[in-house]
């Protein structure tokens, strides 16, 4: 006896991955999906200036946002065809896995652990961990954190680094950057650990604090990320990042969003990936 799949049953089997083939694979082809919808959904921060933040008019701004605009312009013909999805550090992976976003451009540091669950494209920044503390009580070495509380964001490189290498240091963790920095101002921790590039910018805008530890561990790279197995989209981003480096648009994004914050203290070459 021959069986014929009804359309509804076929759709269910495709969605479940029971039936293979080009139609099933289309679910993982983010590039084709973006082109079909004529819209690209990019996860960015809403509270992490100068990389991703909401301005007074409610619009997304920052270094990552400038890169997102270039992605949309080159892929879809207009920088306005981006849907910015505000994310927090702890849910970047989940947003990709659940299909809530096509790409994460939220200051996402490449790590071996993350690479097991998402796919990273070519990096566009390089950073190290830093520690910011009050100028009146600076934390100049990790040893000085003994018996004190260190503030971190959940799911960040800082969280993973201190949890693994310094398990005896007491960590107080928050979801949002705003909460973490407010906790430092309120004295709920002796210091705060985060990417050094962010800390330099924050300390400049907040007198009374300094990045007394400017680099911890080895420099790491920040890169766009896509859903695991989304090879077509990742390959396109690789080519796009190379193009932005070559034609000077990555440097232009730095000049527009980061140089006004850092001035000559942090040269572009120190932060931009080659």
TrEMBL record:
Signal peptide feature range: 1-26
Highest taxon of the lineage: Bacteria
Database matches in InterPro entries: Bact_solute-bind_prot3, Solute-binding_3/MltF_N
Entry keywords, A to Z: Signal, Transport
GO cellular component: extracellular region; outer membrane-bounded periplasmic space
Positions of the Solute-binding protein family 3/N-terminal domain: 39-261
Gene3D superfamilies xrefs: Periplasmic binding protein-like II (3.40.190.10)
Record GO biological process: amino acid transport
Family statement: Belongs to the bacterial solute-binding protein 3 family.
PANTHER family found in the cross-reference section: ABC TRANSPORTER GLUTAMINE-BINDING PROTEIN GLNH, AMINO ACID ABC TRANSPORTER PERMEASE
Protein's name in the database: ABC transporter, substrate-binding protein, family 3
């Amino acid at each position: 006896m021959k069986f014929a799949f009804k359309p509804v049953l076929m759709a269910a089997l495709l969605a479940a991955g029971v039936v293979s083939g080009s139609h099933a694979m289309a679910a993982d082809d983010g590039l084709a999906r973006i082109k079909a919808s004529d819209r690209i959904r990019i996860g960015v921060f809403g509270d992490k200036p100068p990389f991703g933040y909401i301005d007074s008019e409610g619009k997304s701004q920052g270094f990552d946002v400038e890169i997102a605009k270039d992605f949309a312009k080159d892929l879809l013909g207009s920088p306005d065809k981006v849907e910015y999805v505000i994310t927090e550090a702890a849910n970047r992976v989940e947003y990709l896995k659940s299909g809530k976003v096509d790409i994460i451009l939220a200051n996402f540091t490449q790590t071996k652990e993350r690479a097991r669950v998402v796919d990273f494209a070519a990096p566009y920044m390089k950073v190290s961990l830093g520690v910011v503390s009050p100028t009146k009580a600076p934390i100049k070495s990790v040893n000085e954190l003994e018996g004190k509380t260190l503030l971190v964001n959940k799911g960040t490189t800082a969280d993973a680094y201190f949890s693994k290498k310094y398990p005896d240091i007491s960590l107080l963790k928050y979801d949002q950057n705003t909460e973490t920095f407010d906790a430092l101002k309120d004295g709920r921790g002796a210091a705060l650990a985060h990417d050094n590039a962010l800390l330099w910018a924050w300390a400049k805008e907040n007198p009374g604090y300094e990045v007394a530890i400017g680099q911890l561990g080895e420099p790491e790279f920040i890169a766009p990320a896509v859903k695991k197995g989304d090879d077509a989209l990742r390959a396109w981003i690789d080519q796009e990042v190379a193009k932005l480096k070559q034609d000077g648009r990555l440097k232009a994004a730095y000049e527009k969003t980061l140089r006004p914050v850092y001035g000559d203290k942090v040269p572009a070459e120190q932060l931009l990936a080659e």
